[in-house]
Design goal:
heterodimer, A: about 170 residues, mainly alpha, Rossmann fold, 3-stranded parallel sheet, B: about 180 residues, alpha/beta, Beta Polymerase, domain 2, 5-stranded mixed sheet, two-stranded parallel ribbon, 4 helices, about 20% helix, about 25% strand
Chain lengths: ~170, ~180
């Protein structure tokens, strides 16, 4: 939630403003340079010239969570790593998004039963926006996941959402 | 030197420290008593007939049905090219040390082969074998506050770790995903 969210009543200026902000956001999703296991190899392939995630404006892999909009959790998340994943997520500025890439991050994957050290899904640690299944997913699948994230951003609005309005009315009473 | 000769030398040098020997295995080994292992290790490295200057691997075994833990040391005599008067041996050998599962203590050989330092830490981390005299016997892979030794056969999986739920019997039968 950044400063501009929930600032406006529904109507008038919001649709065009939404369109402009969403257009900017969805075409400049900067991911964090963050790979945990074999999925990271596919993520690197997505970043390279053959698949070229830069076509979607998401090619600027930032070396710091403070400059990133997107965390692609690419690989097995262990219990030992979970606290680090959480810390990196907390260091990212709003608006921030998470893609869970591969079977391990979605639900433990092959380590679901016998992996004593593996978190059974990274959504137990950080909120996830898009799940990309596969072991590991093809680069096309990750691009598809990025496009679904763009869809999600496209439908965001700066207008006040109904729950926030009700809450404010209750508080004003 | 073939394994039978090494075994005979060890038996003549250390007598009852050699608890047993298996010579028809693919990788022949002798079983050494845990309390004599450090001096046998030093002999294996320093004796001119042995020259086991390389610890290739340290393996930990969980012999649950015998109520024992075992450590297997794979040794190799690596040719040292600079010393020409020393014959090149290039022979393999393996040593196995078995200890009671309830109180597993093996003397460290990290001062004999520095490779053993991290290997012993891993064996401690995964199997809970305590290597007496090790310079820093702490967990190497798991977090420091981990409970239990994961690769033991009777290990119980964590129900949760720092608030993150693990796999439980309920989850195994009713997966969420």
């Amino acid at each position: 939630m950044s400063w501009i969210e929930n600032r406006f009543e529904e109507g008038l200026i919001v649709t065009s403003l939404d369109w402009a902000i969403n257009w900017g956001r969805q075409n400049s999703i900067w991911p964090m340079t963050f790979g945990l296991a074999c999925c990271a190899i596919e993520m690197m392939a997505v970043g390279a010239s053959r698949f070229d995630i830069d076509r979607f404006g998401a090619g600027a892999f930032r070396a710091s969570p403070r400059q990133s909009d997107l965390m692609i959790v690419a690989g097995t998340v262990t219990y030992k790593m979970a606290s680090r994943v959480k810390r990196l997520y907390n260091q990212m500025p709003d608006p921030k998004y998470v893609i869970a890439m591969g079977a391990c991050t979605i639900g433990g994957g092959p380590y679901f039963k016998h992996g004593y050290h593996v978190v059974k899904g990274v959504d137990l640690v950080v909120p996830v926006d898009v799940y990309v299944p596969g072991c590991p997913p093809r680069p096309e699948a990750l691009i598809e996941g990025l496009m679904r994230l763009q869809d999600k951003i496209r439908h965001q609005t700066r207008a006040i959402d109904p729950m926030t309005r009700v809450r404010r009315e209750v508080l004003a009473r | 030197m073939v394994s039978e000769e090494i075994c005979d030398i060890l038996k003549s040098e250390f007598g009852d420290a050699v608890v047993g020997s298996v010579m028809d295995a693919r990788r022949p080994y002798v079983v050494i008593a845990a309390d004599r292992w450090a001096e046998v290790a030093a002999f294996l490295r320093d004796d001119s007939r042995m020259q086991m200057n390389m610890l290739q691997c340290l393996t930990a075994l969980d012999l649950l049905e015998d109520n024992k833990l075992a450590a297997v040391y794979d040794l190799f005599s690596f040719p040292v090219t600079s010393a020409e008067e020393v014959p090149l041996l290039r022979h393999h050998f393996a040593v196995r040390v078995e200890v009671n599962r309830d109180d597993p203590h093996i003397p460290t050989v990290s001062h004999v082969w520095p490779t053993a330092d991290w290997h012993e830490r891993e064996a401690y981390d995964m199997m809970g074998i305590v290597f007496d005299g090790h310079p820093e016997l702490t967990r190497i892979l798991c977090p420091d506050d981990w409970i239990g030794f994961p690769l033991r056969k009777d290990y119980e999986y964590p129900v949760d770790y720092h608030g993150i739920p693990g796999t439980t019997e309920h989850q195994l039968t009713n997966p969420r995903h």
